[in-house]
């Protein structure tokens, strides 16, 4: 397998060297097809854990899912005695990384556990032990293994509050936790030997890291200056070939593209609608015309009936405002609107402007329900949703135009608490 030996002559799992002093001691889970309910895994995943040896002792960085602890301990025992373990580092506390921790601490009771500051209460809740000894660390803290050392980088929300990265400066290796990882199981282990995992890498970023782009950018500011020969994530291939390429890709994925096309003061407002009989469509068109009257707002209008949800999510992520139009059918907003809203869980919408409108026949609950969902997604909804019963009249179309104008003015900070003269909009 391209030089990667995973088992000894007797079939026992053995460690894989990353360097003379660093070994992989993880496990493979090729049959996993769904991870954390939301991620599909076409060929399984790996649980990566590592051992680094210094002149004064050994450090274990992360463990594996509990059901795979046997492989982990066998590999660990092939390169270190439990009495040599001085340090245990947990970069992340999810069960797929901490499943073997209780048994490891039982076998190596002298080892000191290092976790992030934000992991303290989570660790107690995970292991249900009040007497557990550990050392919380932040960026700038380090631990010595003699002629090798470990430095800690505080990288929260990638993708839990507790996450951190660990850097071995003498080896120029970054143990990155979930960052730069993916669910891709290939026993050839290294990125220059495994099959094509680009889809898995991008898919993992989109579902795990994308909602926390601002934290990705902060983490990259810590990581980009580091001299690196290798990135060792907790899932997927070990990145020994061109590790900087994957850092650059994270930078690209985390940087807004649309803002390069806008002037510094320009805002973007997206209007999406679905219409049963053309009434909500007429409202949408009038709202669009009203918003277009504000010079520094770039307004776009989309009919959900004519597009896939996926590309719209990309647009919404970079926009400043989102307006949704839905009829009310059977006391609810219609399915395409809910499909779009459910897809927005993977992006950060906090403090974006939100607005809702729609035509209805009986009671018009759809607008209010969508407003509540926008607030739940952390959007601002400062202007009450606009509802029109059945076919909008000419005066109601003017109300829609005023609604669009107000939303656009809200984006630019030009909205005033005053009554708009509909005659000026006609």
TrEMBL record:
Assigned keywords, A-Z: Flavoprotein, FMN
Family annotation (InterPro entries): Flavodoxin/NO_synth (IPR008254), Flavodoxin_CS (IPR001226), Flavoprotein-like_sf (IPR029039), Metallo-B-lactamas (IPR001279), ODP_dom (IPR045761), RibonucZ/Hydroxyglut_hydro (IPR036866), Rubredoxin-O_OxRdtase (IPR016440)
Pfam families, sorted: Flavodoxin_1, ODP
Gene3D superfamilies registered for this protein in UniProt: 3.40.50.360, Ribonuclease Z/Hydroxyacylglutathione hydrolase-like
Coiled coil: none
Residue span, Flavodoxin-like domain: 269-408
Cofactor(s) needed for function: FMN
CDD domains from the UniProt entry: flavodiiron_proteins_MBL-fold
Family the entry assigns: In the N-terminal section; belongs to the zinc metallo-hydrolase group 3 family.
Protein name: FprA family A-type flavoprotein
Lineage start: Bacteria, Pseudomonadati, Pseudomonadota, Gammaproteobacteria, Methylococcales
């Amino acid at each position: 397998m391209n030089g990667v030996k995973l088992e000894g002559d007797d079939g026992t799992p053995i460690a894989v060297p990353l360097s003379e002093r660093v070994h992989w001691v993880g496990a493979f889970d090729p049959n996993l097809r769904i991870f954390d309910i939301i991620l599909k895994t076409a060929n399984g995943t790996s649980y990566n854990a590592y051992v680094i040896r210094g002149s004064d002792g050994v450090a274990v960085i992360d463990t594996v899912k509990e059901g795979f602890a046997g492989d982990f301990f066998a590999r660990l025992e092939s390169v270190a005695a439990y009495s040599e373990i001085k340090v245990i580092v947990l970069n992340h506390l999810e069960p797929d990384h901490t499943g073997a921790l209780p048994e490891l601490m039982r076998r190596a009771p002298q080892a000191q556990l290092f976790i992030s500051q934000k992991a303290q209460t989570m660790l107690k809740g995970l292991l249900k032990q009040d007497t557990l000894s550990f050392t919380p660390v932040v960026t700038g803290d380090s631990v010595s293994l003699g002629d090798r050392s470990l430095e800690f980088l505080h990288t929260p929300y990638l993708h839990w509050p507790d996450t951190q990265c660990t850097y071995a400066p003498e080896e120029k290796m970054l143990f990155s936790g979930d960052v730069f990882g993916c669910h891709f199981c290939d026993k050839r282990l290294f990125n220059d030997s495994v099959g094509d995992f680009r889809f898995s890498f991008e898919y993992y970023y989109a579902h795990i890291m994308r909602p926390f782009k601002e934290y990705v950018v902060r983490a990259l500011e810590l990581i980009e200056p580091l001299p690196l020969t290798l990135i060792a994530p907790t899932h997927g291939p070990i990145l020994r070939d061109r590790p900087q390429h994957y850092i650059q890709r994270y930078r690209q994925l985390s940087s807004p593209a649309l803002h390069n096309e806008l002037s510094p003061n320009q805002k973007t407002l997206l209007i999406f609608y679905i219409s049963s009989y053309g009434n909500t469509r007429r409202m949408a068109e009038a709202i669009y015309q009203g918003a277009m009257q504000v010079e520094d707002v770039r307004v776009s209008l989309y009919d959900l009936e004519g597009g896939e949800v996926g590309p719209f999510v990309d647009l919404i992520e970079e926009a400043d405002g989102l307006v949704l139009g839905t009829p009310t059918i059977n006391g609810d907003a219609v399915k395409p609107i809910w499909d779009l809203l459910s897809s927005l869980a993977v992006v950060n919408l906090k403090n974006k402007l939100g607005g809702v409108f729609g035509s209805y026949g009986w009671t018009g609950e759809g607008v209010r329900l969508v407003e509540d969902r926008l607030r739940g997604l952390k959007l601002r909804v400062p202007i009450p949703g606009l509802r029109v019963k059945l076919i909008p009249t000419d005066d109601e179309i003017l109300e829609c135009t005023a609604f669009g104008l107000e939303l656009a003015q809200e984006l630019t900070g030009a909205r005033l608490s005053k009554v708009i003269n509909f005659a000026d909009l006609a």
